[in-house]
Design a protein that fits this description.
single chain; alpha+beta
């Protein structure tokens, strides 16, 4: 009963808070509840221009009682205001728009039917007969044009723009389930809906592929109708909009965030996994105390699970005790303390002094609309900084323009499900188009969920910068180790991958502070000239930085269809298979442990290998570069101390890796690593490097600074050596591993690999059979088996090798073959030399009375053949699968029913190779 009451309390409290926020005045303007359309009223349009006045870069146009004002901010940014009564107002004041530099040089002329207001980059036309605006570039090309004058109806103002034939629209903050809006009507403002179709983290900004963006400078709710014509309405009796003109969407986002604030740079622990729960008097979990959070931190450590911070109270009657002791305990376990605003922001100073480093704005901040929310975000951020040397780091479930400079936007309470995964993918990628660099939701939601949906959700969210798991509201806690195997191992794999990619993600976080463009991106941002990227064909995938393409699995399946890869070469992260875009990949094999993940050819990805926390790094730690050579490419690694604010005084460093490789085929791959330029507390003065260079051929030589490095005999010798290289043909279609001794970070160096191969094609001498071969006689790159080892030429036995019985199917004994125990997954490197695979499959005769298995053959990540369900009484099935020159083949047997213990045999399994 207490559990039910606690749930009800939270739901009721949140619902009341949001309803009040929607109904109260937004910035002094009365808003209609739930964004209902304004009541019908007479519509008035601005009339003919009756007076014109120029005052520097500010131009005022009078049209009867109404006045319009144009103010240039830069040569590509300007503001249009309209006061229907002739009196200008500015409810947002200095809340959102930051102080700007001096106004640009501008000029005007009377062109007869219009006034032309110009900077060096653009001209705004103001037509006279009925005041109507049109924007043109300096070369005369049109950017946008009003198809009707600005209008108002007593409650709202509307701008009407002509729509281009192929014009697409993005932005407006988090729009749950969407990222592109042509032919759609989008609401901007509080709606209390945290599920698909909701828009709690709205932003009154949108951008167009015609090369412009619009920010409505208001706290009022709005309706943006992106049909033809485009109609953008705000529920206030004033019009106030800033316009940004640029050659592409990144430029527009940069201009918008120069006006409203660049995204903040989180502390590095803010890019690690977070955990949150109520630890004091938890009605759902029984009596607990705040210090119990330290025991949970111990569980993360015991399970070798990376975790960077913990929120130890949920803000709904939970509270806290022993705060300083809890903070110290978490810090000893390489985690930071966070709190909800249970007691209001007035308590923040003491909390921060006790060790708080994360603030979640979830209770005590909601007042009269977004102004209060934005003020709360700023106050919490500044409160952390005013009382410690740490960076402000906040999370908020409701935000507005400007919130990107102080917090992570969190999408609220949801229930874990496959559908929850699906609609969040475009939501977070699309929010980047509004200058929101950090958008996320709880792993597997707060309510509901399952072991499978948790695992799938964590996989792709590991490629978001910010992520946390919320415990205490679902039937059981949701730490990533709670579901047991195989889920624990899979979750650990992706959290460790997230940790190792911290230098890559942190570099993109630093980029966001200068460009406004966040790390997580819809394909349309990087490939604006590809019309497919703005359609549903690319809706359920995203880019993490420029180099990783992530296509989450959002259904209970082990096969992912419809993965769109844009132009260029894309390499499967797990297998090394290359795809040439643009193309759509169907039938991608994605068992529960596999996130469909692709790397762009040319990528040079900095990594911290083997860590569970950024604090594992020492002065002598290795820096790794994962290199996918093709043509000319580079990556600039950003570094600072990761936690303090020294970087704002220039205390940071950059080191760039430049890769020059053949466009195709074999040749010389040259990697030039610059000196690390800049300084900060704790900077490494020297460090060893590890390079993983993807190549289907072993190099003829590897030289560091003109000096030949020794080739090591194998992995163990390579691991033991201080420097050298070796070629691992079984690793993802071939990887050259190169290790250096510690090198000064103050000095540039060059690594040259002769005879290496560009990814994506060309000459290959992949390992693999060159004649017909039994599968049991070939080396196995990997072999996962449900019980003990998979057996060669025997049925599955116990825990030892070769302890199985003769392989027998329906009375026929096979001298050659593979005896597996479902679930099993065996990989054979075929090197592109084999034309087909044959076998006879079934459940071994020694299994009597149960068993349901599905067999499948997967080549280079694509499922080529899947059997029907094979039971213990089913006749054996013949298999004959064309391999089409695949480099790697996986033989899989998956349990189809509820029972385990199914002995799945591949009788006479044979690769037919030339």
């Amino acid at each position: 009963m207490r559990k039910t009451l606690h749930h009800t309390h939270r739901s009721r409290r949140r619902g009341t808070v949001l309803a009040v926020a929607a109904a109260l005045a937004l910035g002094g303007v009365t808003a209609t509840p739930a964004l209902s359309p304004p009541a019908a009223a007479a519509t008035t349009s601005v009339g003919a221009v009756t007076a014109f006045r120029a005052d520097g870069a500010v131009y005022t146009l009078t049209a009867g009682a109404a006045k319009a004002r144009v103010s240039f901010v830069t040569d590509q940014v300007f503001r249009i205001e309209l006061a229907p009564t002739g009196t200008f107002t500015d409810p947002t004041g200095s809340d959102i728009v930051l102080p700007q530099g001096p106004a640009p040089a501008s000029s005007w002329r009377d062109a007869g039917d219009r006034y032309e207001l110009s900077t060096g980059a653009l001209t705004l036309r103001a037509y006279k007969s009925a005041l109507r605006f049109a924007l043109h570039r300096a070369d005369g090309s049109k950017v946008w044009e009003e198809s009707a004058p600005l209008s108002w109806d007593g409650k709202a103002t509307t701008q009407t723009l002509a729509r281009g034939a192929a014009e697409q629209f993005f932005g407006t903050g988090e729009q749950n389930g969407s990222f592109t809006y042509r032919d759609r009507t989008v609401q901007v403002g509080v709606d209390g809906n945290w599920n698909e179709g909701g828009h709690p983290n709205s932003v009154p900004f949108y951008l167009s592929t015609a090369g412009y963006g619009v920010y409505r400078n208001t706290y009022a709710p709005g309706t943006y109708d992106f049909t033809s014509p485009v109609k953008a309405t705000e529920q206030e009796m004033r019009f106030d909009a800033y316009y940004f003109a640029g050659p592409g969407p990144k430029d527009v986002i940069g201009q918008y965030t120069a006006l409203t604030g660049k995204p903040f740079l989180p502390p590095v622990y803010g890019l690690e996994m977070g955990d949150s729960d109520c630890y004091l008097h938890n009605a759902n979990r029984g009596e607990r105390h705040t210090l119990d959070a330290v025991k949970v931190a111990d569980d993360y450590v015991a399970n070798d699970m990376p975790n960077g911070w913990m929120l130890v109270n949920d803000g709904y009657g939970c509270g806290y005790e022993n705060l300083a002791q809890t903070a110290q305990g978490l810090q000893q376990r390489k985690m930071q303390l966070g709190l909800w605003t249970e007691n209001g922001l007035a308590q923040l100073a003491d909390q921060v002094k006790a060790g708080q480093r994360v603030a979640k704005l979830d209770v005590a901040w909601v007042g009269s609309g977004y102004k209060f929310a934005l003020d709360g975000c700023k106050a919490a951020y500044q409160g952390i900084e005013a009382n410690s040397n740490a960076r402000g780091f906040t999370w908020a479930p409701e935000s507005w323009s400007g919130a990107q400079r102080c917090g992570v936007q969190w999408s609220g309470d949801q229930s874990g499900s496959w559908d929850y995964i699906r609609w969040q993918i475009p939501t977070y990628a699309g929010a980047t188009m509004s200058g929101m660099a950090y958008n996320t939701g709880d792993v597997d939601g707060i309510f509901g969920g399952s072991a499978k949906t948790y695992t799938r959700d964590l996989q792709w969210k590991s490629f978001l910068p910010a992520v946390m798991s919320m415990d205490g509201w679902a039937p059981s806690d949701k730490q990533p180790y709670k579901y047991g195997e195989p889920y624990t191992s899979i979750n650990r794999k992706y959290l460790k991958l997230k940790e190792s990619l911290l230098p890559y993600m942190y570099s993109y976080a630093a980029e966001a502070t200068s460009t406004g463009v966040g790390p997580v991106r819809p394909l349309a941002l990087e490939y604006p000239d590809d019309p497919v990227t703005a359609t549903d064909a690319a809706k359920y995938e995203f880019l993490s930085g420029e180099d990783f393409l992530v296509a989450p699995v959002y259904a209970d399946t082990s096969v992912r269809d419809g993965i769109y890869l844009p132009k260029g070469t894309w390499v499967d992260y797990w297998t090394g298979r290359s795809y040439q875009g643009p193309t759509t990949v169907n039938g991608y094999s994605a068992p529960l442990d596999t996130l469909p993940l692709f790397v762009k050819a040319g990528a040079a990805v900095p990594m911290w290998p083997g860590i569970s926390s950024y604090q594992d790094r020492t002065a002598g730690s290795q820096l790794a570069w994962d290199v996918y050579p093709q043509g000319h490419s580079s990556f600039s690694l950003y570094e600072d101390d990761g936690v303090t604010r020294e970087h704002r005084d220039g205390r940071s460093a950059r080191q760039t890796a430049v890769v020059d490789a053949p466009a195709t085929g074999a040749g010389q791959v040259r990697i030039d690593v610059s000196a690390s330029v800049g300084d900060f507390t704790g900077k490494q003065t020297a460090r060893p490097y590890l390079f993983s260079v993807h190549s289907t051929t072993a190099p003829t030589s590897v030289a560091l600074g003109g000096r030949q490095l020794p080739r090591q005999a194998g992995k163990s010798a390579f691991d033991a050596a201080t420097e050298g290289w070796w070629y691992d043909s079984s690793d993802r279609s071939g990887v050259i591993q190169v290790k250096t001794a510690a090198l000064s970070t103050a000095t540039a160096f060059q690594l040259v690999l002769d005879g290496a191969t560009a990814v994506g094609g060309g000459t290959t001498t992949d390992p693999g059979p060159t004649a017909d071969s039994w599968a049991s006689d070939l080396p196995w790159t990997s072999a996962v088996n449900g019980w003990g080892p998979a057996e060669r030429d025997r049925s599955n036995g116990e825990q030892g090798a070769a302890d199985g019985h003769p392989l027998t199917l329906n009375g026929t004994t096979y001298a050659k073959g593979i005896g597996a125990h479902a679930d099993s997954d065996i990989t054979v490197q075929t090197g592109g030399h084999c034309s087909s695979f044959t076998a006879t499959v079934g459940i071994d005769d020694e299994i009597n009375g149960y068993g349901d298995v599905v067999f499948s053959v997967v080549a280079d990540g694509v499922t080529l053949w899947t059997s029907p369900t094979v039971g213990w009484q089913s006749p054996p099935l013949p298999v004959d699968v064309p391999l089409r020159g695949a480099r790697s083949v996986r033989l899989k047997a998956t349990v189809a029913g509820s029972k385990t213990g199914d002995h799945a045999d591949w009788g006479a399994a044979r690769f037919h190779c030339a």
